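Dear colleague,

Thank you for sharing your sequence with our group. We've completed the structure prediction you requested, and as agreed, I am returning the results in plain text so they can be pasted directly into your records. Please verify that the sequence below matches your submission; if there's any discrepancy, let me know and we will rerun it promptly.
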Amino acid sequence: MFGVGGHSSAILDDVAAWTSKIAAAFHSFQRAASRTFRRKVKSTPFQEKNGGVPFNASGVVQVGPRRFVFVDNHDSSALFEFVLDADGAEVDGIRQRPLVGIEEGHLGDPEGLTRVDVDGETFLIAASSLCITGGKVNDGLVRVRYTPEGDLHAEAMNGFRTWLLTHEPSLAGPGAREPDAGGLNIEGLAWDPRANALLFGQRGPAEPGRISMIQVPVDAGAATWTTAALSTPSALLARTPQSTATQGIRDISYDEQTRDFLILLGRSLSRGDEPFQLCAWNGSSDEVELIDIKFHRSMKPEGVTTFSSGGKRKILFVDDTGGYAVVKARHP
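Please find the predicted structure tokens below.
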């Protein structure tokens, strides 16, 4: 009796061991296949330049059918608008849309851009990196009233950086350092319609295998654009699966169709060599899902948004080397 029982137990142990090995081999094959068959994305240069140099395109949003607006990291005086045709090619050139109502320094080192619709009015909110560069402190959270034609009227929120560092203790220390010294560097910005909040993505500081965001509830349509429109922020964390790389967020965009956030990841420090990756996050999970996209080595994607064209869902990337790319959207 005992011999039979011991033999059965050994067989069950062997089955469990083999099952575990087969499962591990299958997951390994899946990861290898994902790496092999990932869609490869290469940037198409914009037809124009900004003052003779390539556009340093960062955050991007859709403002109409195949019509988009982006921020130039090196030019805080305007937003930049362009249109794509049905095949995803640029048409009519890039139009400069000067910002009226803000002074130089009100939006230092612009990186993030998001769209908020309130009572039939479209607001575009642009955010500074809030980082310190060469001893200069960058600040700025600017609300723009978007119209298809004419001037873009903008309002700067005075003291936003100080307010954020005061109300979110985890940022106080990094806020005193430059990015490559582990300092604060905000590059992603998205509107979360479920929480009525802005979601700020941290390029830095960053930790291996984990990304950080700050959620700030906002009365986006407030009569006056001051820190009184802000509510208590909260820090959010998510893991990147099977990764020990130190990657920071380069942009965030909310997809109204899937109700997920698309998050662009890249190196956190300027001297790093971590790859750019695209992932999806449902807003509550403690882990993001990687999407099967591989960016060409010449590409530095810093803006992402989704749109529909010809009944198909697509993803637009803008590149801080002066270009853009369009791919079909697929859920991870």
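Summary note from our side: The longest strand covers residues 90-100.

Kind regards,
the structure core
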